[in-house]
Specification:
The protein has 2 domains: 84 residues; 356 residues, Porin (Beta Barrel), CATH 2.40.160. Helix 1 packs antiparallel against helix 2 and helix 2 runs antiparallel to helix 3. It contains 6 helices and 18 strands. A 16-stranded antiparallel β-barrel has the order 1-2-3-4-5-6-7-8-9-12-13-14-15-16-17-18. By secondary structure, the protein is of the alpha+beta class.
Length: 481
């Protein structure tokens, strides 16, 4: 069948189709007229292309062209015909989607996935808080992240790259990198007593590689630096019940560096073991390696229970010096401490979450910490716990309550022996996908005058604050980050 005959048949089919539907409404008349005009234009183009095709054949014959050159000419002519039949001179715009019908998704503004299953995720967390004690400089006491009052503050800005292992796809490795900036970064990495050179790792909150060893159900091995699982609360506000963090989040370790393993015995029980440099130490301050032993149990579908025991020795055995005679990196000129404190820290940490109903979540945490300066020194204690309740009011709104008690005997956490308590009420509303707003009132109090006020010589037994937090987040990683 020649090209002209094929197109003629197609045109005849279109015309017969139009004449076979006499009951078309008047509202479609304009479209029919446009289609008929398109058919006339197509017939004119086909005639012109047939003439062009004949001229090409004549030119090829006159020039003695054959084989590939003649075939190329024919392919070019055929391509022109195909383009003319698929790109009409008059374009009919599709009708607008009816009200209430979702349109097709548009391309992502920022990349969220990469080839192979990796995700890229972004978060910006900011707040405005008012401390009713009006402390000098607007500095809040015993707050991990919401450190400033009466200021518009950037809590943290994050970029997260995540590639999880996929054994089913025969990829046993994975990698995770969390870059963080803002006030929270200074809390995590700002203590030279823990980090000999904090500036090196300042913006690297997590960086580790994963490999699933083919042993039984699979032995997960992570090497690098990761967020600590000691304590119920985590780093990313979008995954928390409350906007502000608890006393225990502030006191317990934020991160560790070393090797961690997890082995899942069955669907209800997984065992954990870590061997790390120390608490909040990307680089160690001594040669002792801390350990964690723990498990995550799921006795029922709606209940998850985590138990951790951590044994460490985080007293430094070196101090900065300036008399090194060999070239070393800045911060690595050190002198030994003799004798060096050798007391241990023991952390018993347990927390459980119960999804009581689809709308009601209950959570509880208990902690007991013993630390000694020397092996036979009198111990210092931190102990107590926290309770959480979250209720989903609507698909977009929820309320959460937190109550907490922390006994600080010896001033391990607050540099003063006292009993700390706090109560927090949080209203969260999801303004849109990836935009969460938090309205929160919190009251901290103690059994001694401890909290700074606008009168430097008159500390208060309480610290009430009101906070508005906004969290923008976007990315391809599902669930908690």
């Amino acid at each position: 069948m020649t090209i002209r005959r094929f197109v003629s048949v197609a045109v005849l089919f279109v015309l017969l189709t139009f004449h076979a539907v006499p009951a078309l409404s008047q509202s479609n008349g304009d479209e029919i007229g446009q289609l008929k005009q398109m058919v006339i234009d197509l017939q004119s183009r086909v005639a012109a292309l047939e003439r062009q095709n004949g001229e090409l054949k004549t030119q090829a014959t006159f020039r003695g062209a054959s084989g590939p050159e003649a075939a190329a000419a024919m392919v070019s002519a055929t391509a022109d015909i195909r383009q003319s039949t698929t790109t009409p001179s008059t374009t009919i715009q599709p009708a607008a989607a009816p009200s209430g019908v979702a349109s097709s998704p548009q391309a992502s503004i920022l990349p969220t996935t990469l080839p192979g299953g990796a995700t890229i995720n972004y978060m910006l967390d900011g707040y405005y808080e008012y401390n009713f004690n009006r402390p000098p400089g607007g500095v809040n006491d015993l707050r991990a992240y919401d450190v400033l009052s009466n200021a518009f503050s950037i809590n943290q800005a994050d970029v997260i790259f995540a590639l999880d292992p996929d054994v089913a796809a025969k990829r046993r490795y994975g990698v995770r990198l969390d870059l963080q900036f803002g006030q929270a970064t200074e809390t995590l990495q700002g203590n030279p007593a823990n980090e000999p050179r904090p500036e090196i790792y300042r913006n690297i909150f997590q960086a580790y590689g994963t490999y699933v060893v083919p042993l039984g159900r699979g032995l997960n091995v992570d090497v690098g630096k990761w967020a600590s699982s000691l304590g119920a609360e985590g780093n990313y506000t979008k995954d928390q019940m409350n906007y502000t963090r608890s006393f225990y989040f502030y006191y317990l370790p934020f991160y560790h560096a070393g090797v961690r393993t997890q082995y899942r015995i069955n669907d209800r029980l997984a065992l954990n073991y870590w061997l790390v440099n120390g608490t909040n130490q990307s680089e160690p301050t001594n040669q002792y390696k801390d350990e964690l032993f723990g498990y995550v149990a799921q006795p029922a579908k709606s209940v998850t229970w985590t138990m951790n025991y951590y044994l460490g020795q985080d007293h430094p055995n070196v101090t900065p010096a300036s008399n090194c005679t060999v070239p070393v990196q800045p911060g690595l000129c050190l002198a030994p401490i003799t004798p060096a404190p050798n007391g241990k820290v023991n952390i018993f940490d347990s927390y459980a979450t119960w999804q009581a109903t689809p709308k009601l979540t209950l959570q509880a945490e208990g902690d007991y910490v013993i630390q000694r300066q020397w092996t036979y020194s009198a111990p210092m204690h931190v102990d107590g716990g926290a309770a959480y309740v979250q209720y989903q009011l609507t698909p977009r709104a929820d309320v959460a309550l937190r109550g907490e008690y922390l006994s600080d005997r010896g001033g391990l956490f607050s540099n003063a022996t006292q009993a700390l308590k706090e109560g927090t009420a949080t209203y969260e509303y999801k303004l849109g996908d990836g935009l969460d707003a938090f309205l929160e009132f919190r009251r901290d109090w103690s059994n001694i005058p401890y909290f700074t006020t606008n009168l430097a010589t008159s500390p208060s037994i309480q610290q009430p604050t009101a906070t508005l937090g906004l969290v923008w987040w976007y990315g391809g990683k599902q669930g908690s980050w």
